[in-house]
Structure formats: structure tokens, C-alpha cells
Amino acid sequence: MSTDGTSVRTADMEPDDLLEPGQARAPVPPPARFQASATAAVPAAPVKPGLSVRLEGLRAFYGEAEQVKGVDLEFRANEVTAIIGPSGCGKSTMVRCINRMHEEIPGARAEGRVLLDDLDVYAQSVDVVAVRRAIGMVFQKPNPFPTMTIFDNVASGLRLSARGRGDLHPQVEAALRGAGLWDEVKDRLGEPGAGLSGGQQQRLCIARSLAVDPEVILMDEPCSALDPIATLKIEELIAELKRSVTIVIVTHNMQQAARVADRTAFMLDGKLVEVGATQEIFTTPTDPRTEEYVTGKFG
Amino acid sequence: MSAQSPAGGQLARFNVSPARRRKDRIARTLILAATILALIPLVLIVYYLLHKGLGSWSPSFFTTDPTGNTFFGGSNIGGIKSAILGTIEIVALASVIAVPIGVGVAVWLVEYGRASWFANIVRFFVDVLTGVPSIIFGLFIYIVLIVGTGSSYAGYKGSLALSLLMLPVVIRSAEVILLLIPGALRESALALGAPRWRVIFSIVLPTALPGMVTGVLLAIARAAGETAPLLFTAASTHNTNFNLGQFMNSLPVQIYNDVTSPTTAVVNRAWGAALTLVVMILLLNLIARLIARRSRLA
Lengths: 299, 298
Description:
- The complex is a heterodimer of chains A (299) and B (298).
- Chain A has 299 residues and is of the alpha/beta class.
- Helix content of chain A is 34%, strand content 21%.
- In chain A, the strands form 2 sheets. In chain A, strands 6-7-8-3-9-10 form a 6-stranded mixed beta sheet, with helices on both faces. A 4-stranded antiparallel beta sheet of chain A has the order 2-1-4-5, with helices on one face.
- The N and C termini of chain A lie far apart (45 Å).
- By secondary structure, chain B is mostly helical.
- Chain B has a single domain (81-294), classed as Orthogonal Bundle (MetI-like fold).
- In chain B, 72% of the residues lie in helices and 0% in strands.
- Chain B has 11 helices and no strands.
- In chain B, helix 6 crosses helix 8 (196-224).
- The mean pLDDT of chain B is 89.
- The A-B interface holds A 99, 101, 104, 106, 129-133, 136-137, 139, 141, 143, 145-147, 156-157, 159-162, 194, 205, 208-209, 212 and B 114-115, 182, 184-195, 198-199, 202-203, 206-207, 209, 296.
């Protein structure tokens, strides 16, 4: 694997597909970047720029049912954006459109544009596999690959995308450090990933997506299956991770959004109601529906 | 237990009524009787197999071919070596044909075909094939490869008939296992940027492997015991044969031939061969169960 974070996708996709000419990022050695973020106590300036994601008129369907009904929304680079809203409002569906996982469901399709920096990920010429390498995803339930060891789970992203040749130990260690899991598992990398606790498994899944060196990480209710202590660890981790990636987190838990997010978007019935700085959304929302939701009047 | 001192007054409604207790006892007795009734033939089969079969077992029984010398005394009728090896060879070739094709069909059905009309038609025909009597597969191969080509019986033709028999069993068992694999596993691999074929080979199939091996072994065990598809495809012979293009002996066919013999020693050889076949299939089933227990699914 290349270490500069920009040329890793060149096998399948020209860097220009993802970046404006002249916008190429400065090379940063990833182990240093992950180590630094794992040990630093206070979040500092971005270590590696993530990429922004912009939704323009995004609509998503399951068969004939429209689940996301035209959303315009920007996720700023190296920020954490939380998406809140009641069950069934289309939060998860919208997020799954960003890395084109939505279309994996039979009968599902999306309309509109999803711009990663300036690249429309739905453009004809774009390789969906390259999009998913740049935009990682962490799911609701921790789901390490059951046949693989801890090491292999982290290395799987590299191996599955055919970039994992030779000794993957440096990348695996860097990713595990980045996910704050290294100290807990360094002596048992050969054990099955399924043997870890729920919170550790979820951090293993985060390490797995970090290993392929993405610019954006989507988290779909990553803590809903975890206890409060494990949740706290993930939240601390999110604060560290935003120094190197852009984070979009779907959450049912409004306190969690208030704790981790720089900006918060409120969705209702497939539409975006309001987006703004988290502080504003929770204290001085402009839309009455947002106020009702964040004060617990419904949802 | 407090049953000896039934509660009175307000708590009386918590007592089990005598009528219900009686019904319960009758139902339990009936179910137990049905279970014992079903066990009787099983126990008798095992008893007769051991009683009659063990008598003809000896080291030379497994290491010599049958001689065909069946009318004179029976002192030199030989063993079942060619039948054991023939069964192993025929079934091995049948598995080599049926397993990759069957697993391939199952992968297509689960990962690509899903609920499309063509996939549903395939599933329907697989179900039809499962119900086809085994002699029909033998007949089909006989018509196509023996009458149709004007050639003779051969071991590989028996293998083809058995592979047709195994195919639907392999497809269905593999499909069930593949459907058990959580969709979240495929999703997380796809979300890592893995192409679909890599997700199938590196995540789905390894996770499904123990379950699939179980299904395959059960299909093999079923095929190993079939007589009808081999009677007029592989025929039978006395000599041990490692050329699947020739006539080939097999355990079920030898049992079929021996048991109709007027010579007692030859009939006893059929019992010995039957016990051997049952032990072989039992071993396969045991291995299948051991592997299933180690499965990480279910």
C-alpha cells in the first residue's frame, strides 16, 4: 500500500477523479498520523485533510417507496456531522447513498448527486469500488468477519481490494492504534475477532475501515448495540478520528450528537428540516419541529 | 412439592384439575408409544446387520475380490474388495462432478439470482430433481450414454448418474447455508471496497464452509448407498478396477447380486457387504456432524 493517502486508489481510479488538479494533498506517513492521534490528549489541527461530501437533491427509493425526498446537505471536511431524527425518517438510507451501499438492496435506487469533494460518485465513469474505499462505513451491529483473526480482520480491507501484498503488519498496527484498540489486542492478534467484547468488536470494525485509509467514514448508529462505557470510548475515538477523516454519524441518541458532533442535521419524513452548528440546533433551533424533537416532545 | 397440600380458598384456581392431569398422561403415553414403534425397525435392522454381517467379516473379506465361484461349497467365494474400492471410486468421481457445480448454482441463486424469475425457475426444477426416483437417473444415463452411443457399461457412467442424483441435494443444502450468512457480513465487506466476487470467495464461502461440507457429506452418503443408478450404468464385475472407463463393481450392486444367490455363503457375503456399507455411511455422517458442530453459524 502506498503511504501518502492519495495514490492508493490509482490502480482503479486516477487521483484526478477524486481530487481537483493541483489539490493533491501533502503526503503524510500514516503510522505517524495514527499514532499521534491515538496519544494526543487534545484534538489538534487536522493531520490529514478529509474530503467534504455534498448532497444535491438526493432522493432514494425502495421500489416505488420514496424514503429520502430530496435532500441538500454538506458534510464539511474534518468535521463530525450528526444526523438525528425519529425512526424511519431516512437517516440511514441517506447515509447509505453516500458510499453507494443503498443500491446493493434489490429494487433500491437513488437520484440526485452525491459529490465527494467535486466528484459525483454516481457518475457513469466512477468505479463504485473506489468510492467505497474512499468512504468507509461502520455499521450498527459490530460485525467482524467470523472466520478471521483480529489481525486478518483489520487486514481484510487491504486484502479484499487486492492492495494487501507483503507484510501488512505496519498498516494493521497503525489502524488498530487509530481505533484505540492496539494496547488491548497487541498480544493476541492471532485470536478470532469474534472473541472480543462488543465495544472492542466495534472498534475492530473501525480499525478495519481505517486500514484502507479512507477520507470519509460513515457511522450508522455505531453505539446503539454498546454499553455506556464502550460508547464513551467510541465517542472519544470519533473526536480523534476527525483530524484525519470527515465523519458522518447517524444517531438516535441526541446526547451523543451533542457530545460528538460539530454540526447536526435534523431529518423528518425523508426531508432535511434543519442543519447547523450542534450548539445552535440544540439551544436555538429556527424550525419549531426541530425544537419539539430536541426537547423530547416527539420521536 | 406442594402438590400434596392443594391450596384452598382463593388459591384453588391454581390447582391442576384431575381431568387435565389425565389428558396429559394419555398424551405422553401415546407419544412415547409412537417413538418406540418407530425405533423397532431401526433396532431390528441394526441387530440383523450385526448378527448376520459380522459373521462374514474377516481380514480376507476386505482384501480379496469376489471369485464368482458360487455353486461349489462356497469355500472360495472371495471378499468384497472390488466392491469397496469401486464404490469409493464411483462416488469420488460423482462428487468431483456434482459438488463444484452444485455449490456454483447455490452461489448464483443466493448472491446473484435472488428472487428473479429465472432463479425461481431454477429452484423449482431443483426441487423436482430432488423428488425424481434414483432409477430414473440411471435410466437417463443408460438411454443417453449406453444405448445412445452404442457403447458399454462403465464406472464413469455410474458416476454421472450418481452426480445427477447428488446435484439437487448439494444445491439445496448449500443454498440454505448461504442464506444463513448474515447480510451485514456481505455489506461490511462491500463497504470496505471489495468487489462482489472477492466478497463471495473471501468472506461468504469461508464462513459457509463447515455447513457446506456437512451438506456435501450427506449427499455423498446418500449417493454411496444407491443401487438403481449403478445397475445398468456401471454394471458389476469381480475384479478390482482402477479404470473408470471399465465395468466397475460397487457395494450396493454386489449386495443386490449376492442376496439372490442360492448359496448360503454368498448370501452371507451380502450381509457382510451391507454391514460394511452402513459403517461407511455412518462414518460419513459422523464426520458431517463433527464439522457441523464446529460451524460458526447456527
